[in-house]
Each structure stands twice: as structure tokens, then as C-alpha cells.
Write a structure and sequence with these properties.
- By secondary structure, the protein is mainly alpha-helical.
- 78% of the residues lie in helices and 0% in strands.
- The protein is built from 19 helices and no strands.
């Protein structure tokens, strides 16, 4: 539901813009308001789950998401819609790290953990593609408002299920650590500034003073955040979480992978609807093979192999497969057939992403103490969100610049629709080359940084690993016990 909501509104946006009278300059805020709140508040949302109990925060996030979706669907004007989307993003920032944290502390047996993360990774990877399909169906056959209303019954039903099924993990006031307010302001402010800057770059360009100022401000705030976190006893993000090479490598790998994945959604949506003249529904249907490939790869291969082979032997090849899919798309032409050009690229990218998502998400919380799983989960979610936002802005700007340059060299025929289509496809191809290069760099990082190997017997569940020990530790354990656990995990 969280990932789906990033893409489901894309196809509905033209109808919503016409219905509510949103200007061309302001229409991006339907997307940006959500990504800003979601990406900027993830660290805080993850820490709140650690401090107040993930079941409670997860349930509140679901109910809040349901309310925000209902407000957005009933919006009578642009301001109400923008505010509802921001509210959706804020409650999504509570949901995402709590969901991943609950998964990590619930499934501690290696075989169960690999299966659970395989399913979770498949849903997370397929959510964006399903959003495009569902957005097309709802917009074409019902109304754009149902792209928002559809979340309300899902979220309410899940909240009731969470209340009755999930184990209570409420942390009492006496054992609850203080919230790191300076870290929350600096960390969330830095992420907000970076996500805002990359989102504005889509329309303003990377050289605009507001874009550059936002990015520089975001970097400075994050540098100050690191300095503060080194000195505070109750850090919003304990730095040892990201300093550990496997978690750091997983976050970098998945962040860079999202650049390529969201770039593909962006270009293929325009290519299919504008160049190939697919309807919104057919455009969404054309993404289904990639969704199926992600599910098969994640649950059928990655989940089975995670307890048998080193993690980099899944993540690295997965990134190379995704890069191969991008390489295939660099041969795209205006008259390229969907079955011969788009379908093979989707399958390669889908199988590759299925190998990336599950082990990366598992590594993000592997060996983390229960009271820090929210912060660890927020880290991997932040990498995904910032990567997706940055990738969309970067690749869109590169494609637009390449198209403008190509048309400028053909000024006498630039008004011809056929020439304009060729120019647009040329821009997509140039941006696809860049996305392929980023995926290759991500594969190199994965091979160099990630060195986690499954313990002997994990494939049969015959051994107990660090996650089991960490998950069974009491939530309010004191500093000496935590230090001992960290030493044991480092030795392991």
C-alpha cells in the first residue's frame, strides 16, 4: 500500500488536475507532498516504533493512512489534496519502518526469516508496478478519487488484523529511553531538504538556485546530524547501524537500484502512452510481467538461496541482471515492438530486483538489537525513498536535456510529431545508459562491501543465529547487556 501509493496517483494525475483546476506548475505537488513527508520523516517514524512499541505505531499509522486517503479522495480543491497527500506520507513514515521491524523481530528462525523477507521483498518490489496497473483501471473505469479511496478499506482491515494478531510489544514509561529531539530535527530536516531539492529539479533543473540551495542545506544538516549522533547517548540513528559494512552495503545497493527502477517506470510510462499510444489500462497491464518476475525471483529463488549462499552472490548478480535489462532498452526505437523490446527488459529487471530486495532488507535488520530495529528499518527505507526521488529527478532531467539537444540540431523539422517522438525516445535512451551505469556501480559496491555468509545449518534451520539471540533479548535491556550483544555480533 505504501509503495503502491507512490505510483498509483501518477496515471490519475491528469484527471485530478483537470477536475480540481490544478495548474501545470503546481501539479507536481500531488507527488512531491507525499514523497517529501514520507522520505523526510522515516528516521523519526522508525525511532518512535522503537520507543513506544511497533505494534502501537504500526496500528496508528494504518488508521492515519486510512483517514488521510479518505480526505484526499474527497478533496474539493488543490490545497486539500496536497495536504492529504502530505498526511499520507507522514503516516507512511510510521508504517514502513514499523512493518519491517515487526517482520525482523517476529521471524527469527533462519528458514522462516528468509521466506518472510522473500514475500515482503516481492510485495515491495511489485507494489510500484501494481500501482500503475490499478491506477489505470480505477481512473479509466471509475474515477481518479478511487486511487485514494482504495487505501481506506485496506488500511482499516489491516489495522483490525494487526490489533488482534500481532504480539503486544508496548514499552513502559519506566524503561523507555528519551527521544533524540536535536537528532530528529537535523536528520529529518536534512532528508526533507534533499528530497525537496531532487523533486524540484524535475521542473526547475539542477542549476536552479533553489534546487542547489536545498541540496547543500540537506548535506550540511546531515553532516551536523552525524556529529550530534556521535555524542548523544540516545541517538535517533545509532551510527554503528550504518557503519556495519553489510547494512551499509545493502542500503547503498538498494538505494542505487531504486534509481534505475523508478527511472524505468518513468520512461516506460511515457513511452507506452505517448509514443506507442497505449491506454492507461494497457500501460499498466504491460508492467505485469515485471511484477511476476519480481515475485518469482524473490520468493522462488532468493528466499531459498538466502540461507545457502553469501548475500552478495544474490545482490550482485541481481544488480547485473537489472543492468542487462537497461542495456536491452538502450536499443529502443519509436517503432520497437513491445514483445521484442519492452518485455525482455522488464523480465530481466524483474528477476534482478527480486534477488536484490529480499536479502538487502534482511541484512538491514540482521543482528540488530530489538530496541534498534526501527532505526535500522528506517535506514533501508530512507535509502529506497531518497534513491527513488533522486533517480526520478536525475534521469528525467537527463532525458529532457538530451531530447532538447537532439531537436535543436534538427530545428527545421522539430515541429514534426514524428521527429518529436524520435527526440523523446533519444532522451529516454540516453537516460537509460546512465541508469545502467548506476546499476553497474551498485553491483561493484555490493561485491566489495557485503561479506555476510549464512551460518552452517541455516538452510535446515538447525542452527541459531545472531538475529535469534537479538530478538529474544528484553526490549529494555541496559547498556552493559547491549554492549555485550554488540561485541558478540561483531565477533560473529
Amino acid at each position: 500500500m505504501i509503495v503502491l501509493d507512490i505510483t498509483i496517483v501518477n496515471i490519475a494525475l491528469p484527471s485530478a488536475q483537470k477536475d480540481l483546476g490544478i495548474s501545470d506548475a503546481d501539479r507536481q505537488w500531488v507527488i512531491t507532498a507525499y514523497t517529501l513527508a514520507f522520505g523526510g520523516l522515516l528516521l523519526l517514524g522508525g525511532r518512535l516504533g522503537d520507543l513506544f512499541g511497533r505494534k502501537r505505531v504500526f496500528t496508528i499509522g494504518l488508521l492515519g493512512f486510512a483517514l488521510a486517503s479518505a480526505i484526499g479522495g474527497a478533496a474539493g480543491g488543490p490545497t486539500m489534496l496536497f495536504a492529504a497527500r502530505a498526511l499520507q506520507g507522514a503516516f507512511g513514515a510510521l508504517l514502513a519502518p514499523s512493518a519491517l521491524g515487526l517482520l525482523s523481530t517476529t521471524f527469527t528462525d533462519p528458514k522462516e526469516r528468509s521466506t518472510a523477507f522473500g514475500i515482503f521483498g516481492a510485495i515491495a518490489g511489485g507494489g510500484a508496478a501494481i500501482g500503475l496497473l490499478l491506477g489505470g483501471l480505477l481512473t479509466e473505469y471509475l474515477n481518479w478519487r478511487w486511487c485514494l479511496f482504495v487505501n481506506t478499506p485496506i488500511a482499516i482491515a489491516t489495522a483490525f488484523a494487526a490489533f488482534s494478531v500481532l504480539t503486544r510489544d508496548h514499552i513502559g514509561k519506566g524503561t523507555r529511553t528519551r527521544l533524540d529531539l536535536p537528532g530528529a530535527v537535523l536528520g529529518c530536516g536534512g532528508l526533507l531538504a534533499i528530497v525537496y531539492g531532487t523533486s524540484e529539479a524535475v521542473t526547475r533543473g539542477w542549476g536552479d538556485w533553489l534546487v542547489l540551495g536545498s541540496l547543500v542545506l540537506g548535506v550540511l544538516l546531515l553532516v551536523a546530524f552525524v556529529l550530534v549522533e556521535k555524542r548523544t547517548p540516545h541517538a535517533l540513528l545509532p551510527l554503528h547501524i550504518v557503519a556495519e559494512r553489510n547494512r551499509g552495503g545493502a542500503a547503498l545497493s538498494i538505494g542505487l537500484a531504486m534509481i534505475g527502477m523508478f527511472g524505468l517506470f518513468l520512461f516506460l510510462t511515457y513511452y507506452l502512452q505517448v509514443i506507442k499510444h497505449f491506454s492507461p489500462v494497457m500501460s499498466g497491464v504491460s508492467f505485469l510481467p515485471m511484477t511476476a518476475a519480481i515475485v518469482i525471483s524473490s520468493t522462488g529463488f532468493a528466499a531459498r538461496l538466502m540461507t545457502r549462499v553469501p548475500s552478495r552472490n544474490l545482490i550482485g548478480p541481481g544488480l547485473l541482471l537489472a543492468a542487462a535489462g537497461m542495456a536491452w532498452l538502450t536499443q529502443m526505437k519509436v517503432d520497437s515492438p513491445w514483445a521484442g523490446m519492452v518485455l525482455p527488459a522488464e523480465l530481466l529487471l524483474g528477476f534482478g530486483m527480486g534477488l536484490i530486495f529480499m536479502p538487502s532488507m534482511s541484512l538491514a535488520t540482521l543482528g540488530v538489537a530489538p530496541h534498534e530495529t526501527g532505526a535500522a528499518s528506517a535506514t533501508i527505507n530512507s535509502a529506497q525513498q531518497v534513491g527513488g526521488s533522486f533517480g526520478t529527478a536525475l534521469l528525467n532531467t537527463i532525458a529532457a536535456s538530451a531530447t532538447a539537444g537532439w531537436l535543436a540540431a534538427r530545428i527545421t523539422t522539430a515541429g514534426d510529431p514524428a521527429v518529436q517522438a524520435q527526440g523523446a525516445v533519444h532522451g529516454y535512451v540516453i537516460a537509460t545508459w546512465v541508469a545502467m551505469s548506476i546499476l553497474l556501480v551498485a553491483a561493484l559496491i555490493a561485491f566489495l562491501m557485503i561479506d555476510h555468509r549464512p551460518a552452517p545449518g541455516e538452510a535446515t534451520g538447525a542452527t541459531s543465529t545472531a538475529p535469534s539471540t537479538a530478538a529474544e533479548a528484553p526490549a529494555g535491556a541496559g547498556a552493559p547487556a547491549q554492549a555485550t550483544a554488540h561485541q558478540q555480533q561483531r565477533r560473529t
